[in-house]
Amino acid sequence: MKKTIITIGLSSIIALTGCSNKHDQGLGAKNHAGNPTNVNNPTQYYDEDYRNHDNKSDDFGFTRTNSTTIDGRNISNKAASIDREQLSDVISKLSVQIPNVNDAATLVTDEEVLVVYDTNTKDRTETADQVKRTAMSVVPRYYHVYVSDDFQNLSQDVENFATLKSGSKGMDYTIEQTIKRMLKSPQGYKMSDAENENGEMVNDKRDHHDNIHQKMDNR
After folding, report:
1. Cβ(185)–Cβ(178) below 8 Å
2. What's the pTM?
């Protein structure tokens, strides 16, 4: 399968808070007004800022950050944020480019990706593996990915989460119930010797997959 590269344009605005003379000369850092940035503590450079260009889909993405501070805060204590809506959009678009995949619905939570897709494949396990690994390539590595080709019965269930928030009442149980139904479909092959099909560590005393079934049994 030919790999597809899609440039993701994140909409966050990162303020420049540091640039020494050396970095000014080497990188040509400028603020939004076009003037050289005048700060003493280099911490981060963002290409669209110092180049003073608009975001374009064919631009490379570039950031440089060191482990000092941004706006007086220690960035080591500042968790990186991700746009779940954009991630789900990219995963769905990449999934339908996989051979024999005709439609895809994707949900991205704080630690899980659920992809339900319509397919006419003759090898369900192979297609499941391609869809799963496509999603894995987009999200941070701590995510677990669950897939299902039962599009007719599960696509609406996944779509129903779209207007809800992670803190909504009963959300964890509802997602676990949906995952349990998805696990009846092929999940592809193991990610590695240390991880199962969904990216869960197999040497854990009880992985996320087992937790789901345990919680469901206790209801």
Report:
1. no
2. 0.66
